[in-house]
Structures are given as C-alpha cells and as structure tokens.
Specification:
Helix content is about 80%, strand content about 0%. By secondary structure, the protein is mostly helical.
Length: about 325
C-alpha cells in the first residue's frame, strides 16, 4: 500500500491533474492579456506587453484565476517530480495541448481547423515517443558538483536569445519564441527541483545549506523570467500555441538536463538518442504547424494582406497626383 502511494502511479496522476490546471490557466490568462481594450496595447499585433500593462492586467479576476490554476498545477507537478524521474513526469504535461484546444473550441463554439488537429497530433505523438524512449533507460542519481550552475548558465543563455528574437519579431514568431523561452526556463525549474530533492534525499546536502539556497534562488528567477515571457506570448498568439510550446519544449529541456545533470541518461545508447532527436523534431514540427494554422494566425495574415492591398492603390494615387502637378 505504501509503495502504491509513493510510486510512479501517483506521480503520473499528479502530473495529469497538473496538465488540466495548466490548460485552464492558459485559456484564462490569454483571454485577459489579449483583451484589446486592455492597457498599453495588450493584445494588439506587433505590441510588446509593458510592465505597466502587465500590472493592470494582473488585477483582472480572470488573470488571477488563471494564476491560481497555474500555481495549483505547479504544486501538483512539483509533487510528481519528487516521486518519479523527470523523463517520466515532464512529458505528461503534453495532455494540456488537446485540453486547451478543446476549451478554446467550446469557448468560441467552433471546430478547430485540420491544421490545428495535425499540429496537436504531431506534438502529442512526438512527446509520447520521446517520453517512452527516455523512460526506458532513465535512472536517478544525485547531481555532480557544479552541474546545476553550468546547466543554469547554459539555459539562461538560450532563454536570452529566444527573448531577443521574440522582441524583434511580431506575430506568431514572437508568440513561439517567447513561449519557447519561457518553456526553457520552466524546464530548468523542473530540473533544479529534481536535483535539489535528490541531493537532500541522499543526504549529500542539508535543506538550508548554500547549494540548496542558491538553487532555490535560481528557481525563483527562472519562474519570474519564464512567467514574463509566457505573458508576452499570450499577448501575441492563441493559448493553444503557448501551451503547446510549454508542454513540448519544457519536457525536452528537462529530460536533456536530467540526462546530463542528473545522470538519468547514463545508460542510453546512441541509437536511442537518435530516436529522441527524431521525436523532438516531430513535436517541434507540430508546434509550428499549430502556430501557423491556428485560426488567429490565419486571420492575422488575412488582415495584413488586406491592409497591404488597400494601402498600395492609395500610394499609386498619391504618386500619380504628384506627377500630374509637375
């Protein structure tokens, strides 16, 4: 009975409940952030969500309800990470993708396009193969010295590059770049939580020793940066795309960190790594397909084309009038 309550079955159940919470949080917060009547141009194409605008949005009941769901999902996810390896727990969050699609479809009273279904299936299939492959060779060991610091610096550099790309490009590119950066930060959080729990459980360090406190500080910074990037993604794209980036990139980053940082992939052969790369690429293709074929992205492209068509005749007319005056 005790083994049942502390084994991977409970961890999987907690992770599944967390996925439901994350999907609901994404839909609620996207609705609050993308409201075009919001301050500082929140939700307007090409606009960056300012700190002032975010502060005003953070007072909305829908956004706060989404935050509460996200906090509950994070607590459930953290509990699952204590009970099972990263490679088992992390990819279960991909269930949030179809849940978010379903919630949005119910909210709008419409059926998602075929491209959306293809993107969802590729994302789920890629992550499913990834987790099953990684879990077959996963082992849990305490992290080596300085491994957490090295992993944190590498992920921080990746997050900064993605944030710069997101701030430089509008539309779905900004949405995907910011959401991917946030997912990388959250993947680091999961890896640090697992590393700290393993180190404390093995007795290598105490709960209040400097390495643990430093990891806790890193977790706090990663949560803040990742949360800010996710809000930028909500302001630039639909919730399904954001949650797809989070649930695809987060487990990939976390599993890779688990393999390198925690030694969970020490027994993984080369051909298995090749399959992991193919699965990750498939899941990434699913996210891109979902981002490009989502109705919001299609409508945005149609609106830009319409603006270009209407502005071109006006430019020709002004040029003709100028020549006539000469």
């Amino acid at each position: 009975m005790i083994d049942l309550l502390t084994g991977p079955g409970v961890a999987i159940a907690l992770a599944m409940l967390g996925a439901v919470c994350f999907a609901g949080a994404a839909v609620l917060q996207h609705r609050a952030v993308s409201d075009r009547s919001g301050p500082s141009g929140a939700g307007q194409e090409g606009k960056v969500l300012s700190l002032r605008g975010l502060g005003a949005i953070a007072r909305r009941p829908g956004w706060l309800a989404g935050l509460a769901l996200a906090a509950g999902g994070s607590a459930l996810h953290a509990g699952a990470l204590v009970l099972a390896p990263l490679s088992v727990v992390q990819p279960i969050g991909v269930l949030a993708v179809p849940i978010a699609v379903l919630l949005t479809a119910v909210q709008r009273g419409s059926v998602p396009a075929l491209g959306v279904f293809v993107g969802v299936l590729l994302s789920i299939g890629g992550v499913a193969v990834f987790v099953l492959t990684a879990a077959s060779t996963a082992v849990s060991t305490p992290p080596p010295d300085q491994a957490t610091l090295f992993a944190s610096l590498v992920v921080a550099g990746i997050v900064l590059l993605l944030a710069a790309l997101g701030m430089a490009r509008p539309g779905w590119v900004r949405c995907v770049a910011c959401a991917t950066g946030g997912a990388a930060a959250f993947g680091l959080v999961s890896a640090l939580v697992r590393a700290v729990s393993q180190s404390v459980a093995s007795g290598d360090v105490g709960a209040f020793e400097p390495p643990v406190l430093a990891a806790a500080a890193g977790i706090g910074v990663a949560v803040l940066v990742g949360g800010w990037l996710v809000q930028q993604a909500f302001a630039s794209g639909p919730p399904e795309v954001v949650i797809a980036c989070l649930t695809v990139v987060d487990p990939i980053v976390a599993v890779l960190l688990g393999a390198v940082l925690l030694g969970e992939g020490a027994a993984t052969p080369a051909e298995t790594w090749l399959l992991l790369v193919v699965a990750a690429a498939t899941a990434t293709a699913g996210v891109i397909a979902l981002a490009r074929h989502h109705p919001d992205a299609v409508a945005a492209r149609a609106a830009r084309s319409a603006r270009e068509r209407t502005s071109t005749p006006a430019a020709h007319t002004r040029s003709a009038h100028s020549l006539h005056r000469r």
